[in-house]
Amino acid sequence: MLLPPNDWLPKAPLERLPLDWLTKAGIEVAILRLDLIDPLISGNKWFKLIEHLKAADRTAAKGIISLGGAHSNHLHALAAAGKRFGFATVGLLRGHPQETPTVKDLQAFGMQLHWLGYGGYRARHDPGFWEPWLAQYPDLFAVPEGGGGLSGAEGCMQLKAFVREQLNGLAWSDYDAWWLACGTGTTLAGLVLAEAGDHPVYGALAVPDDHGVAQQVERILEEADVTNAVYELFDASRGGFAKVDPQLLEFIEQTEHASGVPLEPLYTGKALMALRQQVEAGKFAPGTRLIFMHTGGLQGRRGLTPK
Predict the structure, then answer these.
(1) Which pTM does this prediction carry?
(2) Interval 121-133 mean pLDDT
(3) How far, rounded to the nearest angstrom, does the alpha carbon of residue 14 sit from its chain's CA centroid?
(4) Taking the CA atoms of the chain, what radius of gyration do you get in angstroms?
(5) Is the pLDDT score of 142 beyond 60?
(6) By C-alpha distance, which of 276, 293, 275 is closest to 21?
(7) Spatial CA neighbour of 243 closest among 305, 291, 290, 181
(8) Is the pLDDT of residue 156 over 90?
(9) What is the DSSP letter of 119?
(10) Are 25 and 284 within 8 A, CB to CB?
(11) Alpha helix ranges (H) inside the chain
C-alpha cells in the first residue's frame, strides 16, 4: 500500500488576511493555509497525489515515477511522501544536472533522478513517452507532471470542505469566489468540479500561455463531463516561467510584514499580487468575500534570485 493512514494529515487553517489594499476596497479575504498542513508534504501537492496513489495501489505498484523541474514542489512532496511512507520514487527532471536545494532534498529523500534535457522534457506529452521509462521501472506507476489530470483534480475537490467547515470561525455564512495560483490548472479544475457552478474560481496563471494551462483545465473538465464550469484565468506570470523581479519581491516582503504569512515568489506571491491588481481595477464589488488559497511550495523559494 502506498497510501498512508487517513488520519495522518492535519486540517489547513482558514485565516483572515489583513491587508490595507483589501480594507480600502471593502473586500474580505480568508486565506486557506495549505502551507501549514505538513513541513515537507506541503500545500496542494498532497491532494493532487491522493487519487494517483489510490490508482497505483489498485495496480499493486511499488512506487511512483513523475516529472518536474529543479525547484519542483510536486517532486519534493512526492519524494518526501515516498521516504515517510516507504514507497519508491523516481523523478524525471527538466534540463541538465544541477544542484539546487530542492534537488539535494530529492536525493536525500531517496528519489532516483534522471535529467531529460530540455528537448527530452518537452516530449513528455508525446505518445509513447512513458513506454521506455515503464519498461525500465515496471513496478512503478506513472503520474503526470505536477500530479495533473482528472485524478489530480479529483483529489483537490475535498478542499472545498476544508473551507466550508471553518466559515463559522470567521463569522461568514458563505463566500463569493476562490482565487489561487495556477501552475498546471489541476487544483483549479478540482475546485471547479467541487463547486459545480455554485461559486466562481479565479486562477492566476503563474506560467506563460505556452504551458497549456487553459487547455489542461478544459481537458480535465471535458473528461469529467462538466457542463456548469464557472472559472476565469488571469495572467500573473510576469513575463515568463519562474520569472522573479524586484517589484514582486518588494510586494512579498511588504505583505509578509503586514500579514505574517510567508509567501514564495513563483506561485502564491504572484497570485496575491495579481489579486491586488484586479481589486484595484474594480474587478470585485465592495463586500465581496474571497477564499485565497496558499498552495504551499515555500521550499521552492530557496536560492531564487530576480531574473
Answers:
(1) 0.93
(2) 94
(3) 17
(4) 19
(5) yes
(6) 276
(7) 305
(8) yes
(9) H
(10) yes
(11) 20-25, 45-58, 73-85, 101-108, 117-122, 131-136, 149-156, 159-164, 186-195, 213-223, 246-259, 268-280
